[in-house]
Each structure stands twice: as C-alpha cells, then as structure tokens.
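Lecture notes, continued. The same structure-token format from the folding unit now serves as the input rather than the output. Read the line below as a description of shape only.
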C-alpha cells in the first residue's frame, strides 16, 4: 500500500466503521421488528446492490418486466426517479410511450423503463411504500418490481436480488468512504440471489474470486447468476433502428456517456470493432445542454465520426436535440449462468401470493 493510501485509510477508517455500524443497526432493527415494514398482498421483487454507481439494475428490471409480461402479468415498477422533480414527491407514467414525459420530472431511468415495458406503470418517488399505496388502486398490478430496493427496508418483499459489477476491483469492496459499498457485506444475508453483471468482460478466475470473497457473508442457499449486457442494435433519437452492431466494425466513433460505468460502454463498442477516436465522460445522470450536444455533433461532422451514446443518456438528449445523427445502443440483459435456477426460485417464493 502506498504512503498516501495508508494515510487515507487511517484517516477515513473510523468514518467507514461508523457508517457500517449505522446501516447494520438499521437493518437489524427492521429484520427483528423494532421498525415495522409494510406488507402487501401481491408479489414484490427487490432488485438492488450494495455499491454506489451502476451494477446493471435497470437492465435487470427490464429483463424481469419482460419475463413477467410474457406471462400476462401487469407490472408496476417502484423507482426513486433519481434527480427528477418527482424524486421528492410522486408521479406515475404509463409504459410504452416515447414522448410526452420529461426526464426532468421523472428521471432518465424511469422513462427508459416506461419505454421498454409497454404494458407497465412506473411509479416515481423515494417514498416507495407510500407511493405504492397511493397508486395501487389506480394501476392494480399483478407484481411489483422494487428498483434499487436493497436499502429500502420499509417495504416487505418476497424475493431479494443483489447485483455486483464484475468489473469492480475487490479492493473497492469496502464501506464508504474507504470503498464503494453503501453498507457492509453482512447485508448480503438478506439476499436470495446474487447476480454478477458484465461477467463476460472479466476472466473466469475473477468470477471465482468474487464468489469466494462474498461467500462468507451469504446464506447457504443463496443463488448465483452471471449476466452480460448485450446491445442488440443502434437506434436514432426517434427510436428507429439504424444499423446492427456488426456494422460498427472499422467505423470511427465519437462516444460519450453520462453513466456510472462509462468505460464498460466504450469497451462494448470496441468489442464490436468500432474505432473509438474520441471519448467524453459526463457525470452520472447528467442533464445535457443543447450546446454540449451541438459541440459533439459539430466535431464529429468535421472529422467524419459516428456519434454514439447510451440508451439512458438518449432519454435526456432528446429534450435538447432531435438530431438523428446521434445513435444509441439499445441494451438487453443475457444470462450466462443461473437463469433457470433463479426463475424457479422466484416462482417458488411468489407462488403463495398467486
């Protein structure tokens, strides 16, 4: 450990311990009835993580939503609507609409979910238990997906899924501010399934290393899954397919992103043979300005570059630019391991509600 890292560890270790203890006591209080949880008579699945930043929660919500929609179930997604106006209030949007909702109100992820799950409803607001009660009679869902729900302990759930980004170095598995963990790994005792996302972007021994590292903190019957985030095509701002990913080979690209893991997006493009000549990283959930987008477009035109961004960023870009030159990669989640076991376990956990 370098000298600076030692100083950093010594200075911030007490704060990390305090943070960990606070969250452990909070979880203990909910698990043992000192604080009450609201219970509802329909199935609730939580999709969350222990780390700050992106671990693939939204793609997993979409995978679950599409899976249950095929079984003729009406889905309600409870999400915070991060950085949207309704984050500190409440709002509902109907799925399947491409226009008419503002990401400044609902947040980018809520609009993305609504577009991809056409028969769902997406309820926005950080007080998710209260919002569920508020909109239940209006929407009458068959199943509820609780987005970013592992720390949202006020709401009882039937099945807990926790995601980890396989690209995250193990040295980051410390409670903030020493690392990227929101709370200690002991919180994994409440997980029914652990999903390692972007598992295709790391060697097999890294997957084994993560499992070995996390195993002391999980229950003996926890399920393990491995998933990849695979783009299926490139689309323009009107959500029209423009080209397949294989058509990226040897094309020169300006790629930009305002997401938690921009490098994974850039690596994805390069894996399809794109030559990423220019990269620009914005903060996660960045609210794009027209000038920023136009600068990128003009540079790309001058240098004959294809302009690519992420699906989540396109939700906000469409508010300031309707230029069809900007393309985004629509991403689907693909299981690499554990799919059938996790499906069976979810159905077993939810059967008493159906």
């Amino acid at each position: 450990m370098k000298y600076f890292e030692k100083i950093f560890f010594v200075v911030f270790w007490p704060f990390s311990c305090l943070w960990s203890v606070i969250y452990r006591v909070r979880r203990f209080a909910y698990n043992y009835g000192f604080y009450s949880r609201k219970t509802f008579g329909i199935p609730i699945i939580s999709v969350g993580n222990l780390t700050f930043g992106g671990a693939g929660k939204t793609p997993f919500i979409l995978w679950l939503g599409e899976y249950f929609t095929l079984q003729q179930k009406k889905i309600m997604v409870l999400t915070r609507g991060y950085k949207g106006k309704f984050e500190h209030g409440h709002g509902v949007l109907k799925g399947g609409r491409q226009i008419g909702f503002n990401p400044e109100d609902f947040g980018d992820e809520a609009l993305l979910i609504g577009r991809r799950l056409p028969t769902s409803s997406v309820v926005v607001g950080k007080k998710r238990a209260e919002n569920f009660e508020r909109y239940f009679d209006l929407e009458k869902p068959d199943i509820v997906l609780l987005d970013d729900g592992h720390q949202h302990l006020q709401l009882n759930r039937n099945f807990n899924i926790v995601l980890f980004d396989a690209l995250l170095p193990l040295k980051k598995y410390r409670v903030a501010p020493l690392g990227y963990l929101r709370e200690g790994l002991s919180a994994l005792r409440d997980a029914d399934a652990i999903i390692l996302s972007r598992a295709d972007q790391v060697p097999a021994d890294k997957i084994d290393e993560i499992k070995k590292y996390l195993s002391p903190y999980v229950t003996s019957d926890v399920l393990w899954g491995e998933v990849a985030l695979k783009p299926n095509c490139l689309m323009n701002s009107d959500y029209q397919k423009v080209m397949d990913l294989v058509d990226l080979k040897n094309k020169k690209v300006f790629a930009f992103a305002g997401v938690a893991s921009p490098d994974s997006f850039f690596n994805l493009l390069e894996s399809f043979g794109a030559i990423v000549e220019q990269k620009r990283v914005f903060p996660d959930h960045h609210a794009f300005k027209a000038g920023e987008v136009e600068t990128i477009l003009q540079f790309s035109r001058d240098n004959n570059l294809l302009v690519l961004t992420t699906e989540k960023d396109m939700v906000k870009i469409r508010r300031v630019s309707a230029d069809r030159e900007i393309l985004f990669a629509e991403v689907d989640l693909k299981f690499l391991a554990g799919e059938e076991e996790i499906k069976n376990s979810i159905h077993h956990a939810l059967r008493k509600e159906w």
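Point for the exam: DSSP finds ten helices and 13 strands in the chain.
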